[in-house]
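Question (not urgent): is this output format expected?
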Amino acid sequence: MRVWCNCLILFSLVAGSPVAEAQPELGKWWKNSEIARKLRLTEPQIGQIEQGYLNHQRRLADTNAQLKRSEEQLKALMQPDRPDEAKVQSQIKRVADARAALETVYASMMLSIRKALSREQWMKLEELKTVPMSAASARLFEDAGAQGTLPPEGVFVPGGQVKAPVIIYQRMPSYTQAARDARAEGIVLLEATVRKNGTVDSIKVLRGIGYGLDESAVHTIATEWKFRPGTRNGQPVDVRVVIETAFRLY
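Got this back:
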């Protein structure tokens, strides 16, 4: 059984993960009747997209697993009081190579999908994949305000002079054994504060899946993710964001 995780901030495309950077999670959008209608997909196109997707899933899963192993090995090498610099530098290169390999496979899959679509369909898909920053933030904080949970004073919301933070490093959350056994899939929706120093805290689950996946997402984002902080009038500030983490089994 193969597993795949994908993360994004709802109001902006994220950096750091080639998969997340290239495509916010729409799931198997070509199987979604509403999206298929908007794109005016034909049955042959749907079949071609599905085949391109299937042709790359094994390689995507394998390269993602290799990246995770490389990152874990690097993390272990950094644990001693006096890390072996030569070994650390060598492992950093392996991590970079694994990231490049994952990006290459993903780009190849996206090319196969692109070839099945007209230019107009591709441009429309790009529009559907992007959730506008102001709309996403407005929905989140309108709901939060109704519940009395607006950000504390000094924490800003993206929009206007407040620029959204951008991920510069992210490690994908791990699938739990319980989730694998139950074949659980879905999206964990989180609310969090990205601090002016690039760390993230005050994470709250807005919508979860269970089976330990909610906790996995929270722990990984809190301990492993680094951001270029959001700004207000060019100065770093604390910003409240919504993060979507998709868990898929392949």
